[in-house]
TrEMBL record:
The active site is at residue 190. It catalyses: N(2)-acetyl-L-ornithine + L-glutamate = N-acetyl-L-glutamate + L-ornithine; L-glutamate + acetyl-CoA = N-acetyl-L-glutamate + CoA + H(+). Belongs to the ArgJ family. It is found in: Cytoplasm. InterPro entries: Arg_biosynth_ArgJ, ArgJ-like_dom_sf, ArgJ_beta_C. One of its GO terms (biological process) is L-arginine biosynthetic process. The record marks 114-115 as: Involved in the stabilization of negative charge on the oxyanion by the formation of the oxyanion hole. Keywords: Acyltransferase, Amino-acid biosynthesis, Arginine biosynthesis, Autocatalytic cleavage, Cytoplasm, Multifunctional enzyme, Transferase. PANTHER family: ARGININE BIOSYNTHESIS BIFUNCTIONAL PROTEIN ARGJ, ARGININE BIOSYNTHESIS BIFUNCTIONAL PROTEIN ARGJ, MITOCHONDRIAL. Heterotetramer of two alpha and two beta chains. Its main location: cytoplasm. It comes from Lachnoanaerobaculum saburreum F0468. This is Arginine biosynthesis bifunctional protein ArgJ.
Length: 408
């Protein structure tokens, strides 16, 4: 496997575009389109929030069916959530506009929105945006970059990646982009994510791979503990790599596909966590030596979502008691007198706690380690063979500033 350029357009047959539709933002692009020149199979995972945005309901019906997909239309600025019948009608109108312009079926267009909850979409601007997007589709690195920028809200950087690997002697490519910065919490995290690949695979295995993967990637990140109404992760596979179709979950080809999918989603997950609103550092929590995989996940997420721990990371303070506290209220059983806690980063590694007590570490050395852009807490429970990793960020003054006046 190698990382390549091209983002969402890296795989054969995929195009993208972006446009300024003035949905909410007046000085930047705010709509994007992804298009496959041949019908693609799709799979999706969506928010666990009981309150689901109109595009989530629209997309889930399509990705859960045997319907092929050609296009995804995304807007930023307004979420089209809590908009009831009018919001669903606007989904239908948007899909029809895309279908007419692209010459595809109405049900082959997926939709995604992100932004302020409770506002109705300016459907005239949406439709004008779709027309512009349809007329400017390109298969290029530039188009992919622009699409990734257009779906941002409070993100400080665009997020994209592409890889190339081999299946059945054929080169296969996978590209992806996502957005997410605030209202991020596991199961799923708050984000919009899109993956395109030219692999030839059955719909059943595409869905299985995606759902199995998010458990250890997007479901393991948190910024602020809020689960959105709009979370969507969608993958399209158009088969143009012309590899022998993957239909056996026990095959080496399927394992290769899953490995590369995991690489892509892990990279995107870390991008989102590291770009948390106001964040100055990516905070990674690794739990090792747990009795079960689920226990390791629960413990890691408990630490990464702890506001007090996140504040300590912002202050470069090795306040290990907060981590022990978060582990202790996770609901999982472990022996605090038979575990170890380390902090590490590019600046070094230091043992903080062992067998029930602090080891008397050097505070200045710990502060130096915690001053890096990416810091890690490693918890070794010494109880079993399972591990899990969660990602988050520090909690800063700027998080309050950003969210206090988000609507304005």
């Amino acid at each position: 496997m190698k990382i390549i350029k091209g983002g969402i357009c890296a795989a054969k047959g995929f195009f993208a575009s972006a446009t300024e539709a003035n949905i909410k933002y007046k000085d930047r692009t705010d709509m994007a389109m992804i298009f496959s020149k041949v019908p693609a199979i799709s799979a999706g995972t969506y928010t666990t929030n009981l309150v689901k945005a109109a595009p989530v309901l629209w997309d889930r019906k399509i990705t859960d069916s045997e319907t092929y997909v050609n296009a995804i239309v995304i807007n930023s600025g307004i979420a089209n959530a809590c908009t009831k019948d009018e919001g669903m009608e606007y989904c239908k109108m948007s899909a029809k506009k895309a279908a007419d312009k692209l010459g595809v079926g109405e049900s082959s267009t997926l939709l995604a929105s992100t932004g302020v909850i409770g506002m109705q979409l300016p459907i005239d601007r949406i439709c004008a945006g779709i027309e512009s997007l349809s007329n400017s589709l390109e298969q290029s690195e530039r188009a992919a970059n622009e699409a990734a920028k257009a779906i941002m809200t409070t993100d400080t950087v665009s997020k994209e990646i592409a890889v190339e690997f081999e299946i059945s002697g054929k080169p296969v490519k996978m590209g992806a982009m996502c957005k997410g910065s605030g209202m991020i919490h596991p199961n799923m995290c708050t984000m919009l994510g899109f993956i395109t690949t030219d692999v030839n695979i059955s719909k059943e295995l595409l869905l299985k791979a995606l759902r199995d993967d998010v458990v250890d990637t997007f479901n393991m990140i948190s910024v602020d503990g809020d689960t959105s109404t709009n979370d969507s992760l969608i993958i399209l596979a158009n088969g143009l790599a012309d590899n022998e179709k993957i239909v056996n979950e026990n095959s080496e080809e399927y394992k290769i596909f899953k490995h590369n999918l995991n690489f892509v989603t892990t990279a995107l997950s870390k991008m989102i966590a590291g770009d948390g609103e106001g964040a100055t550092a990516l905070f990674e929590v690794v739990v090792k030596g747990a009795k079960t995989k689920e226990a390791a996940r629960t413990l890691a997420k408990s630490v990464v979502t702890s506001s007090l721990t996140k504040a300590a990371i912002f202050g470069h303070d090795a306040n290990w008691g907060r981590i022990l506290c978060a582990l202790g209220y996770s609901g999982e059983k472990f022996d605090p007198d038979n575990m170890e806690l380390y902090f590490e980063s590019e600046n070094g590694r230091i043992l903080i706690y062992k067998d029930g007590v602090s080891v008397g570490f050097d505070e200045k050395e710990a502060t130096k380690i915690l001053s890096a852009k990416e810091v890690r807490a490693v918890v070794d429970l010494n109880m079993g063979d399972f591990d899990a990793t969660a990602w988050g960020c520090d909690l800063t003054f700027d998080y309050i500033k950003i969210n206090a006046d988000y609507r304005s």
